[in-house]
């Protein structure tokens, strides 16, 4: 799989209250509606203007804070193609796997990527290409890949319950 | 082979094979904790997975804490949706007012030494204070665990934190963990377990241990054990640690986490004199009896400074009753505090006590992110209950040490 998209760039420690503010956590909204609140706590420009296929590039500890799954769902529903970060907080990373939302750990690519530029990610080759060069990243382990290929934990469990 | 850390021991025991840092293992889970905030999504995921019955209703507790009592019609209806599921499945139910899920999991004995517990809340790591490997997961993860009774875990490496010497008067467990977080950083423990050591843990209380274990997630930690002779589980002497951090308790001072990150450490002296508007004592971090008592001891006989509001929310019904019995509530209320029913309350900004624009808030909780308490235009300082109480008397951020009665 290969994706290409425009970059929204952020710094370190973007927490779950920034990605999906706590005031919305108590609303049983559709994934699409969650998408309309994405990044509302830190960047209303993104909330208004992000489009399907855009890619988020950010520093270390993305998604720190609460366990709220909406922080992943809102980005996925918004059509964000992938997240490229220096590092991701544990629960966010795990939730992203469970949602089938790709998180790429690649500090080198983060360093040279500029906001607004077009980058591409080749998940099979494990490569990110931006204006400055081509950067390699470590693909997910086999176990995680099989879960991601199903589309996440929910379809994976549904499938294994059916078997 | 070298010895094992506590995390490796518990995950080995629950997976039936030798679990070493870096391995991914499938484990039987002993207990599951689901608060109302993520519970709604857990129930929805459970239904979407076409789950019929939970694996074992005695292994699952739903707690109405993050937004209970509900502040509006919409949330009341959401809770009804969740409550209907709870009642039909026969799982353990802690209704609104019983307390914060993490406090209840420990108080009621569901979390104990050697157990593997998951919670649909990041502060599940609190149960490391009683020797459980306990960690937060998302709602979909929780739903899958409720169906199967199992989940996968990456065995974490462990950071060892050695606390030496004694803690000075006027400093608390909160000052210790804020100091540790300031040193290690908000990401310094990502995916890691923690083991804390030191004579301090032989003398301190369970309340203190819970405050410390509670905040390991603020460094990215997966779980954290406060080790002492009575914990009920211990690491092997030749266990392997990825990092060792030394903290001299004699050098700990009353401190704060300044807005808007938990690792934005400063001694109280650096921010002393800053006017405050609102103060909150509560939460799974510092809403326990000793926290309330520490604040009451400073506030007793005094009054809140004019223009300062104080909200006190005990972390459980048992704590509320004890605080009432022992006169602690009277001291707090006489000084001018408002008291709200046991719940998460102002910590997470969904009910009970939102600050106004431009206000400075002192809070005994665990997060000071912009918007955390429901208003992105307020500044939150995380502090100990002692620092909070002294500051409430003066109306400005205040070093509590002169106010501590020996």
Number of helices of chain B: 14
Number of domains of chain B: 3
Mean pLDDT of chain A: 93
Inertia-based shape of chain A: globular
Count every beta strand of chain A, where a strand is a DSSP E run of 2 or more residues.
Answer: 7
Helix content of chain B: 25-40%
* Apparent shape of chain B: globular
What is the number of strand segments of chain B? Answer: 18
List low-confidence stretches of chain A: none
CATH A-level architecture of the largest domain in chain B: 2-Layer Sandwich
CATH class call of the largest domain in chain B = Alpha Beta
| Percent of residues in helices of chain A | 25-40%
Could you state the oligomeric state of the chains shown?
heterodimer
| Unreliable spans of chain B | none
Overall description:
Chain A has a seven-stranded mixed beta sheet. In chain A, helix 4 crosses helix 5. The two termini of chain A are 27 Å apart. Chain A has helices spanning 16-19, 31-35, 44-49, 70-77, 90-99, 107-112, 142-150, 153-162; strands spanning 2-9, 55-58, 82-85, 103-105, 118-122, 127-130, 133-136. In chain A, a hairpin with a 2-residue loop joins strand 6 (127-130) and strand 7 (133-136). By secondary structure, chain A is α/β, with parallel strands linked by helices. Chain B has 406 residues and is of the alpha/beta class. Chain B folds into three domains: 20-154, Aconitase, domain 3; 158-251, Aconitase, Domain 2; 255-403, Aconitase, domain 3. Helix content of chain B is 32%, strand content 19%. Chain B has 14 helices and 18 strands. In chain B, helix 6 (173-184) links the parallel strand 8 and strand 9 (193-197). In chain B, helix 2 (36-48) packs across helix 5, helix 6 (173-184) runs parallel beside helix 8 and helix 11 packs parallel to helix 14. The radius of gyration of chain B is 20 Å and the shape is globular. Chain B starts with 5 loop residues before the first helix and ends in a 12-residue tail after the last helix. The mean pLDDT of chain B is 97. At the A-B interface, helix 5 and helix 8 of A face helix 2, helix 3 and helix 5 of B.
């Amino acid at each position: 799989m290969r994706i290409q998209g425009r970059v929204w760039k952020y710094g370190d420690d973007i927490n779950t209250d920034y990605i999906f503010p706590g005031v919305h956590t108590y609303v049983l909204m559709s994934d699409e509606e969650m998408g309309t609140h994405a990044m509302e706590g830190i960047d209303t420009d993104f909330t208004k203007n992000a489009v399907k296929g855009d890619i988020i590039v950010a520093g270390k500890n993305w998604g720190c804070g609460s366990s709220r799954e909406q922080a992943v769902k809102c980005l996925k529903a918004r059509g964000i193609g992938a997240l490229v970060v220096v590092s991701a907080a544990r629960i966010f990373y795990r939730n992203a796997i469970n949602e089938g939302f790709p998180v790429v750990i690649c500090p080198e690519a983060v360093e040279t990527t500029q906001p607004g530029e077009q980058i591409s990610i080749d998940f099979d080759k494990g490569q990110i290409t931006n204006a400055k060069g081509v950067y390699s990243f470590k693909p997910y382990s086999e176990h995680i890949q099989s879960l991601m290929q199903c589309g996440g934990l929910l379809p994976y469990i549904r499938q294994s319950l059916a078997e | 082979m070298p010895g094992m850390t506590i995390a490796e021991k518990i995950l080995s025991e629950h997976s039936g094979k030798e679990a070493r840092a870096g391995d991914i293992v499938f484990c039987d889970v002993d207990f599951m904790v689901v608060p109302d905030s993520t519970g709604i999504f857990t129930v929805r995921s459970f239904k979407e997975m076409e789950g019929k019955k939970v694996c074992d209703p005695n292994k699952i507790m739903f707690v109405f804490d993050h937004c209970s009592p509900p502040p509006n019609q919409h949330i009341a209806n959401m809770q009804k949706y969740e409550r209907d599921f709870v009642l039909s499945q026969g799982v353990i139910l802690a209704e609104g007012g019983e307390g914060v899920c993490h406090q209840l999991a420990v108080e009621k004995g569901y979390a104990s030494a050697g157990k593997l517990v998951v919670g649909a809340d990041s502060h599940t790591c609190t149960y490391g204070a009683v020797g459980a490997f306990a960690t937060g997961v998302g709602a979909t993860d929780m739903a899958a665990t409720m169906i199967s009774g199992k989940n996968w875990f990456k065995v974490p490496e462990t950071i060892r934190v050695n606390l030496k010497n004694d803690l000075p008067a006027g400093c608390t467990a909160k000052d210790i963990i804020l100091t540790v977080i300031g040193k290690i950083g908000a990401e310094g423990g990502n995916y890691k377990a923690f083991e804390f050591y030191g004579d301090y843990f032989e003398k301190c209380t369970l309340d203190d241990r819970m405050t410390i274990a509670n905040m390991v997630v603020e460094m990215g930690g997966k779980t954290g054990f406060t080790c002492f002779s009575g914990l009920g589980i211990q690491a092997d002497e030749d266990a392997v640690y990825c990092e060792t951090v030394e903290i001299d308790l004699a050098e700990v001072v009353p401190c704060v986490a300044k807005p808007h990150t938990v690792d934005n450490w400063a001694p109280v002296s650096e921010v002393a004199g800053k006017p405050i508007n609102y103060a909150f004592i509560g939460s799974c971090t510092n809403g326990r009896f000793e926290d309330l008592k520490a604040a009451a001891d400073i506030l007793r006989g005094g009054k809140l400074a004019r223009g300062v509001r104080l909200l006190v929310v005990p972390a459980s019904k048992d704590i509320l009753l004890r605080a009432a019995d022992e006169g602690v509530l009277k001291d707090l209320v006489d000084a001018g505090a408002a008291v709200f029913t046991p719940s998460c309350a102002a910590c997470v900004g969904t009910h009970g006590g939102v600050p106004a624009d431009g206000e400075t808030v002192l809070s005994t909780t665990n997060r000071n992110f912009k918007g955390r308490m429901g208003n992105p235009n307020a500044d939150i300082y995380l502090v100990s209950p002692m620092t909070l109480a002294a500051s409430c008397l003066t109306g400005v951020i205040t070093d509590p040490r002169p106010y501590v009665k020996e």
